Amino acid sequence: MKRIFKWNGRLLLRDWKTRLILIGFFLFLGSFSLLYRQQNVVLPEMQLRSEYSDAHNIFRLIPDAHFEGELGEEVERRLGGNSSLIGLNRYILTQREGNTVEGVEDVVSNYLENGKQMALNNLFLLEATEFESHDILTSVYLPTKAEIKQDIAFYDALDENNLAIEWNPYASSEILKEELELFISIVLFIFIALLAGDHFTKDQVNHYSVTQGLPVALKTTWRTRSFILWLMTWVSAFFGFGVSYGLSLFFETTGSLSYPVALYVNQAITYIPLWQYGLLLFGLGMIVSYIFLLIITGLSWMIQNIYLTLFIVAVLVFLPQLWTVINPVTSWQPSFYTEIVSVVTGESAALFNLPGITFWKLPIIAFLIWLILEGVFHLIFKLIPTQRSGLKRRVTQ
Amino acid sequence: MTLEVKNLNVAYGEREILNDISFKLTDGQIIGLVAPNGTGKTTLFNAIMRFIPVKSGQIFVDDKEYTSSDKDILKLHQLITFFPDQSDLHENFSGTEHIEMYAEMWSGDKGNVRSIINQLDMGDYVDRKVSTYSLGMRQRLCFAMIIASDTPIMFMDEVMNSLDPENVSLVSNILIELRTQGKIIIVASHLLDNLDEYANKVFFLKERQVHFIFDHEDEKKDYFKLLCTEQQAKQLQETVSLPNKTIHLGNNILCIPLDKLSEAEQLGIYKQLRHLKNVEITVGPLGTSEYYSHLYGLDIHSYDRGHEDEAAVSK
């Protein structure tokens, strides 16, 4: 096995296409933090400014008469409270000191406390169905109940870990999260498809007589090459992430690797530290990318045309879009799980109206797919590739 | 070790390439495989290696059948190496790496690599990238790779291609050495006279079958082999009664068997030859090239080609 790894690894690494793609991939990931700093992002303070404006506008939309009576007055008080709390939190963010501002703690209070109070106010408003303009409140102002609970959970998570609200969207930890999510969603698939799309094809077209008669089973070579390409991908990715994170530490505030990130599990959103979220994305990405590499290297043996291989991979990656048109039946549908970030954050569950789409199903599905692939390629590798790119049975009669 | 092929049939669609090929080889043998281009030499190798679909037939090594199952093919590939095509080499690998790769993949031992390099006189270039090699260098490298694999059976397709006479001789000597080690080697080559130097038998493929086997161990008859023009051959036949088994190869070589002729008759023919101008005569048994010409009816020694015109010009 060692010799098979050695020579296949050497063959792959000597290939200039492999080298260039690995270098390009490393440079892209390594320079991501620098590129990201050129982006125009919505600062949390700007976001609050918009909320502040909404909070003011709601008063104009609701007739004064509706604020009369006990409930009306309470609603007015809560809405006013929100407006004031948003203003305070905006001020806290602009001072960039943490959850409060030194010296005026009694005046501005604490960002988290203010946030939780706003959430409680919103919950009250949501349940105040007797209020005459409740429809206006829900349609233009209030978030959903789930979103409010999510906000409370977020503030609790920050509180528990003694963390401050992140005022800087360019903080190293924030960039790392953005990079991870971009990488796991589409970049990874484009990269591995380009990397592996023609490796067996090259053997057959350019090195047929040198490689065809080697005393190694095709299945072994298939697994070995997929694994080596997988290893190269992730080594290159980890180095890229390391460099990018190092650069962002140099240029920006550090942020926190314990910063809470939303995770969809058991049909609800919970918050986990960023480092756990990162490990989860890496782990799931590793599983999915290995399955894809098995498919791509296998296809490169069957099809001998990199463009067709890339097309098939693209179809597989974008297959979940199909379920926006056709009603999906089950959350065990494998194609959902190519969109790892959407599965982990619960977006897929919401989009396809299948609460069962959750991240822990991914390894199980991947295992089943792996078994199927082993079976399918066991049969395919029994065939012989002909010069016209067709496959034939080894014995004709 | 034995290699046996039984009733092998290969067809590409409706087109039959090999029909009912059967032979059995024992160890320590070199077999020459000879046929014009496109007659199925490489197909025969590919079929035995199971690189192409086989319509029917069986492959035995040491009387054990190797079927088309994955397991059998893998075992078969451990026993047989197939000569690589020089254009299939990895351009950005060195020659040494290629040899080491074959050594490690088959025997798992690269201890002999240096001695193979020295034996083939490749020391001055083998550590450079293959992309810098000439055709002859590449061919020697392919040969070195096969030797490094050290399998008991070796298929060498067009092994002498691109080699200069010195290297043809070097490779021929190594082939003979491999034979003494007990290897079964099948060599497909168009260097017909060279085949006679080392092959035990020569298989002639014709009409999809092994049409004729020229066995060097059989008793050989001597012939007068005359290199002459068609007109000279006619002239000779008119003046002398030639034996029935006289062979007229491609109009240019007349092979007259001597076993049925008395010394006086032989002398009579020789005297007649003296009257003909520009006739070359050699005495000896028929070789692969003569059989080839006879079997495929080709002008391989085209004595007429241009010579008469040159004579006219000089006059």
From TrEMBL, chain A:
Keyword annotations of the record: Membrane, Transmembrane, Transmembrane helix
The keyword Transmembrane helix is assigned to this record: yes
Keyword Nucleotidyltransferase found: no
Segments traversing the membrane: 20-36, 182-200, 227-251, 274-299, 306-326, 364-384
Coiled-coil ranges from the UniProt annotation: none
Protein name (record): ABC-2 family transporter protein
From TrEMBL, chain B:
One Pfam family named in its UniProt record: ABC_tran
Gene3D superfamilies, per the entry: P-loop containing nucleotide triphosphate hydrolases
SUPFAM superfamilies to which the protein is assigned, alphabetical: P-loop containing nucleoside triphosphate hydrolases
An annotated Gene Ontology molecular function: ATP hydrolysis activity
UniProt keyword list: ATP-binding, Nucleotide-binding, Transport
Cross-referenced InterPro entries: AAA+_ATPase, ABC_transporter-like_ATP-bd, ABC_transporter-like_CS, ABC_Transporter_VariousFunc, P-loop_NTPase
Domain named ABC transporter: residues: 3-232
Name of the molecule in the record: ABC-2 type transport system ATP-binding protein
